[in-house]
Each structure stands twice: as C-alpha cells, then as structure tokens.
Design a protein that fits this description.
Blueprint lengths: L19 E5 L2 E5 L5 H7 L6 E2 L6 E2 L12 E4 L2 E4 L9 E7 L18 E9 L3 H10 L6 E4 L20 H4 L5 H13 L4 E4 L4 E4 L5 E5 L2 E12 L3 E3 L12 E3 H10 L7 E5 L3 H12 L3 E7 L8 H9 L4 E3 L1 E7 L6 E6 L12 E4 L2 E4 L3 E3 L2 H8 L4 E3 L9 H19 L7 H11 L18 E5 L9 H5 L5 E3 L8 E3 L8 H5 L5 E5 L8 E8 L11 E5 L5 E11 L8 E8 L8 E2 L15 H5 L2 E3 L4 E2 H11 L4 H8 L11 H13 L29
Parallel strand pairs: 1-7, 3-7, 8-9, 8-13, 9-10, 13-24, 15-22, 16-17, 16-22, 17-18
Antiparallel strand pairs: 1-2, 3-4, 5-6, 5-7, 11-12, 12-13, 14-23, 19-20, 20-21, 25-28, 26-27, 28-29, 29-32, 30-31, 30-33, 31-32, 34-35
Helix pairs in contact: 2-4, 2-9, 5-6, 6-7, 9-10, 14-16
C-alpha cells in the first residue's frame, strides 16, 4: 500500500500512528486520529477527490483551508469538504462524480431556536493578531469571544516550523512559529472573561448588528459591541493553461499537508513565486525529503528576504528570475510544467522554454487580506477594527504587534485610560516594511582571533536575536536599530548561540585553531535537513552565501542538544583559505535543462479562471467584448463567474485583470458585491434534528 506519511523530520514529530479505519470507494485505509480526510487520502496516494459536474474534470485539493470545494467528497452519503472534515472510525468516503443527490427522505425537520449571544468584543480569527489583541483587552475587564474555524488556537503559526524574525523582547524572535503559537494559545486560555469558540467559522455580518457563526456545526448569532477582524490572509493565484489540474495548489495548502499533517505531499515539486512564502515552502519541502526542482519568479529579483533566498540556493535549488509559468500539463493530474523567460512587459520570450517533469506545482504569488466581513461590518455601522494580515499583509511577527496595538486602541476608544507606546508603532512599521537595501558584508579580521562568527546578513530586515544571545555582547547592529545589519565586533568564546538562533541561517562559526599545522579550519554550520542527508566522514561540496561553489569539505560531526531548539550544528573541515567563504553545502544537483513548447492561443483561451464553475478565460473575454460589460456582477449573472462555493475568493482578482486587459487599466469596474454567507452553511446548522 502506498504510504506518503513523513515518519522522520528534523523539526516535528507525528503525534500518533494511523489507527482509524475508513474506506474510500470501498477500499480500506487507515488515518491518524482527528486527521482530515484529505490528508489521509493523500497519504495513501489518492489525489483526485471528485469529478466536476460541468465537464467531468478531475478535482484535487487546492486551498486545504475550507475556502473552496475542490476536495468535496461523499462522507457516509453526505457531501463534505475533505480538508476540514476529520476522519472517524468506520467512515465511508466516496469520490463524488457530479453534483451530490438530494436525500429522498421528505420528513419535515423543525428549525431549532437560534441562540443569540451578547458580548463586548468578538474577535474573528485566533491567529497571532487575534490572540495578542485578546491579551491586551483583558485590561478592560471585557467579555470577549474569539471565534476561529480551526480546531486549535494559533492560526497559521502552527504551520511555521522555522525561527521567526524580529526581536526576542518584542515578538519572540528566534523561536519557531509553532512554538510561538503554543505560547500565545496558553496565555489566552488562562484569560478571564474570554470564551474560545473553535470549529466556529464566522459566516456573516448583518445590518441589524448581528454576526452569524456556525459553532461546532450549529448556527449561532452574536451581538458584539465591538468587532475585531484578525482573519489573516488568503493566497492569490494565477490563471494559466492547466492551472486547474490536481497537483496545482498554494504554498499554504502545502505547508498544511507537510507541517501540520506530516504528509509527503509531493515527490517532485516546482514553485512559482520568489517571495517569502515560496522560499519558505521550498525549504520546508527539503526538510520533508521532497525533491525541489526549482523556483520561478517573474520579477528581476526575488521579493522575499535574501537570507531565505540564500539558504535554498546554498542547498542547490535553482532560481529563475524574470521567468514565468507558461503551462501545466497532465492526464488527469499534473505531470509536467513549462516555464520561459519574460521581458520587461512580462511577455514570454521565444526559444527560452524549459520543461520539468513534476507531480506538484505550488503557486505562491502573494496574499490578499481576508477582509470581506470587516468591510460589511463597516458598511453596517459596527464598531469595527482590523489587525494582522486582515489589515496589512506582513510577517507574523508584525501581526503580533498589530494585535497588541489594536487591543489597546480599542480600550482607548471604549474609554479606558491606557497608553499605546509610540515605540510599538515604530516597531510595527519596521516589522511591516519591505526588505531594505543591501550592504557589503563586513567580515571580522582573522588576525584578531582564532575563533569568530561570520555573519552573512547583508540586507536591512527587522531582526536582531543574535545581538541578544551573545554572552560577550560582541554582535551589534548598525546604530542599534532593529533593521540594522549585524556585525561581530569583539571577542568570541565559540558558544555557537548566534549560529543556533539566527532565523535566516546566516551565521557560521570559524575555528582557525582547529589544525595545529594551519592548513585546515573547522566551520560550524546551522543544519536542519533530514537525518541521514549527510553523514560524518562524508566529503561534500561547499557553497558560498549565495550558493556559488567554493570547494570541498569533510563532515566531522553533526551535533544536537535540547538547547539548540531542534537545530543541529554541522562541523565541517575545510581548507583554511575557504573557511570564511563557506556558508553551506550542496545536497541537490539541478537537472539538465529540457526544452519545452509554448502554450498555444487555444490553450490560453481555454484556461480556467473560475475554478468552482469552470468558466474559461475565453468565455469571460468574449462576454466583455460582446456586451462591453463593466460590472463583475453582470458577469456573475451571465456566466456564473464567482457563483461557486468559494464565493469569488479565487477568481475575483483574476476576472478583474481580464476586465482591465480588455477595457484599459483605468477602466471603472463595478466590483463584486459580497453577500452573506461568506462560507457555505449546511441546512443542518439551522435544524433541531441534526444531520440525520
């Protein structure tokens, strides 16, 4: 039987074994307790969940977040989203072919009375911003409800296995995101007057001041005096030929499968997007033992932190900037992708096509705020606030500070005498800022010491935990600023604490006293790859801080201890002349280039834009041309664009691009009108008799 479960990982461990019995299409399988159906199926190599009712096209997982319905299956005869439905013992799951049939039972089930709950504050989203805001709100002795659609607190922090940026004092820099999530969750769970509603998606905001929530499957109404949206962000996507194939999905879905559910969701992976999401996803894939074929970025430079970019380049992952994805191909599922170089107008250039055989394509091209509930609340006159990515897209460390600030700001508006320090606003601005300029690396002069760190953090980013952990206070940032480039200035005792805590894996330690003959040096590298990737005694290819080849080194040891917070240290013997240049080792060899063919005009015309209703690019363009349409809502009425389960969350921006393409960049387009419910609500949520 196929088994795609991750049994060994350098950072995380499975909580339990697969002991829960279920069937899919009549065949017996096992899942881990409380594992989502989608993860259990992918663990057994099942990538197709249903066939679309319009044209029979195979559907695979896409968002892994309950936002769409591409993973819809029949569970004991009822349609369910596989990505948010836990497996239960003896559950019978079937592939859905077309639309589900309505049950024949015509018994009348009475609607139950809908509970109405009063509260001072309703917080939508239990991620870093929502939890941080809740902690601050306790100073006002307010009744607070935190509602989240997940089964545990922490939001996307639970998917972040890497060390966080920022400062130790202000946002737990140097800790792993999942540990920060646990820390915040434990703090909130101890708060007085704070109710936590998990498995409780907020589905509607109404003009009478009520908010609809499906709490554990039952519909509730909440009347808050104040409404705080910290629902985070959703991924943007691209429309290209084959974008709808099973195996094409976002970085967030990938991290959910790999880091939450420990599923090796791919064998051969390609990534579109060189921002932090794409770069981090590539690194996480390597940690899960997945082969990463490369990353393609449309801009001339990757937009993510340079330390994220460098650490994947050092391992041997190719990066193609000023390139784009042309098409994805496969018979019922992804089998091949083709990329090409583009010019300044983003036009693909002929004779630059390259193809790669792969089974998974991650589209990581940015995030958009989940703010539709916020906009409705403001429209209806709520006392409404936003924090975190629902307000401004930034790193999770910024979301923590954003939540703290907005919590105190709400208290001020309510009438409490409480201060919001100006320093908090300054730190938030730094945490939200885009990566700053590059600087020349300033290496410590080797004639001053025999052991010292090499710090390869050359870009101004908000991060300084290395300055806080040095026992000799020998690492300082320029002008003492959080965004200043750190440099080693004085004495080193070789404790390796800076190597262990650096979120960007940008610090190595050089020991020039290692060899009495002065020919060899010992370099200590941060190491987070799977056990057995390299072994003591192995000769490896060494790389510089941007991934360029340096020479060879010999692995002397790989050290591990609890204080290293699951980061290992590789001790590497290298020639003395290479010691300061060595920043990592190559573990992957790029494949030889394969020529590919460009997408045809017919391929482009048939590209799926609205995934739920399977409306093509050509259908939308033709309607705009024929009717001179300038209203997204007319497009909905005519073609059903945006009428599917995701409620235009995926296709809205893609369709607006087509409007501007046809009518001009400055054309005034009537936007999509958001209406309740923001998510599907099963009729059973309103009934007294339950699903049965």
């Amino acid at each position: 039987m196929i088994n795609h479960r991750i049994s060994k990982h350098p950072i995380i461990s499975p909580d339990s074994e697969a002991t829960v019995n279920f069937t899919f299409n009549g065949l017996a399988y096992k899942a881990r307790p409380e594992e989502m159906i989608s993860s259990a199926m992918i663990a057994h190599g099942i990538a197709i969940f249903n066939k679309h009712h319009k044209d029979g096209a195979p559907q695979g997982i896409f968002c892994a977040n309950g936002q769409c319905a591409q993973c819809l299956v029949l569970v004991d005869g009822l349609p369910k989203k596989a990505c948010i439905t836990p497996v239960k013992e003896s559950m019978a799951v079937q592939e859905l072919d077309g639309l589900p049939e309505l049950p024949e039972d015509d018994d009348i089930v009475p609607a139950s009375a809908i509970p109405v709950v009063e509260t001072d504050v309703l917080i939508v989203g239990a991620g870093p911003a929502g939890l941080s805001a809740a902690v601050e709100l306790t100073a006002g002795n307010l009744n607070v409800i935190i509602a989240d659609d997940k089964l545990e607190l922490g939001g996307k922090l639970g998917l972040q296995t890497h060390n966080f940026f920022g400062s130790i004092r202000d946002c737990h820099a140097g800790m792993r995101g999942m540990d920060i999530g646990t820390l915040l969750a434990e703090e909130v769970e101890e708060l007085a007057n704070t109710e936590i509603w998990l498995d409780s998606p907020v589905v509607g905001v109404f003009s009478d001041g009520l908010v609809g929530i499906v709490k554990a499957g039952k519909y509730h109404l909440v009347r808050p005096k104040h409404f705080l949206v910290t629902a985070g962000a959703r991924e943007k996507t691209l429309a290209f030929p084959g974008c709808d194939l099973p195996g094409v999905y976002g970085g967030g879905a990938f991290q959910t499968l790999v880091n939450r559910d420990m599923i090796r969701a791919s064998n051969r992976l390609f990534i579109v997007g060189g921002g932090n999401v794409g770069l981090i996803a590539a690194y996480h894939a390597l940690q899960a033992g997945i082969e990463v074929l490369g990353i393609v970025e449309a801009l001339p430079q990757c937009g993510g932190y340079k330390v994220h970019l460098d650490k994947v380049k050092r391992l041997g992952i190719p990066i193609w900037t000023a390139h784009t994805i042309l098409k994805a191909e496969g018979d019922g599922k992804l089998e091949k992708v083709t990329i090409a170089a583009i010019d300044k107008t983003f036009t693909p250039q002929p004779d630059t096509e390259q193809s790669f055989d792969c089974d998974t394509l991650l589209v990581a091209v940015g995030l958009a705020p989940v703010d539709e509930l916020l906009e409705k609340a403001r429209q209806f006159g709520f006392s409404a606030y936003a924090a975190g990515d629902a307000d401004v897209i930034a790193e999770a460390s910024a979301a923590i500070f954003s939540g703290r600030i907005i919590g105190r700001k709400m208290l001020q508006d309510i009438g409490h005498d409480i201060e919001v320090p100006q320093e908090w606003y300054d730190i938030l601005d730094m945490l939200r800022a885009k990566p700053g300029p590059m600087h020349e690396l300033g290496y410590f002069k080797k004639d001053k010491a025999k052991i010292y760190p090499i710090i390869r953090c050359a870009q101004e980013i908000p991060c300084n935990p290395c300055t806080a952990v040095c026992p000799k206070n020998s690492i300082k940032t320029h002008d003492g600023k959080l965004t200043g480039v750190p440099q080693f200035t004085d004495e080193c005792i070789g404790c390796t604490r800076c190597v262990v805590i650096c979120p960007g894996l940008a610090i190595t330690l050089v020991d020039r006293a290692y060899d009495p003959n002065g020919k060899l040096a010992l370099v200590t590298l941060p190491w987070e790859m799977p056990h057995g990737t390299v072994k003591p005694g192995q000769i490896v290819k060494t790389t510089g801080f941007e991934g360029h080849h340096i020479g060879q080194g010999k692995v002397i040891a790989i050290k591990d201890s609890k204080w290293q917070n699951r980061r290992q240290l590789m001790l590497l013997e290298v020639p003395m002349e290479d010691a300061e240049a060595v920043a990592g080792i190559h573990i992957y060899q790029p494949e030889d280039k394969k020529s590919g063919s460009t997408a045809t005009s017919r391929d482009d015309w048939d590209t799926i834009v609205c995934r739920c209703e399977r409306i093509t690019k050509g259908e939308i363009i033709q309607y705009i041309r024929d009717t001179e349409c300038t209203d997204f809502n007319a497009l909905k009425a005519a073609l059903r664009v945006g009428m599917g389960p995701c409620g235009a969350k995926t296709c809205n921006e893609l369709a607006l691009r087509l409007f501007r393409q046809e009518l001009g960049r400055d054309a005034e387009i009537e936007p999509n009108v958001e209406r309740p419910f923001a998510l599907e609500v099963p009729i059973s949520a309103f009934l007294g008799g339950g699903e049965e």
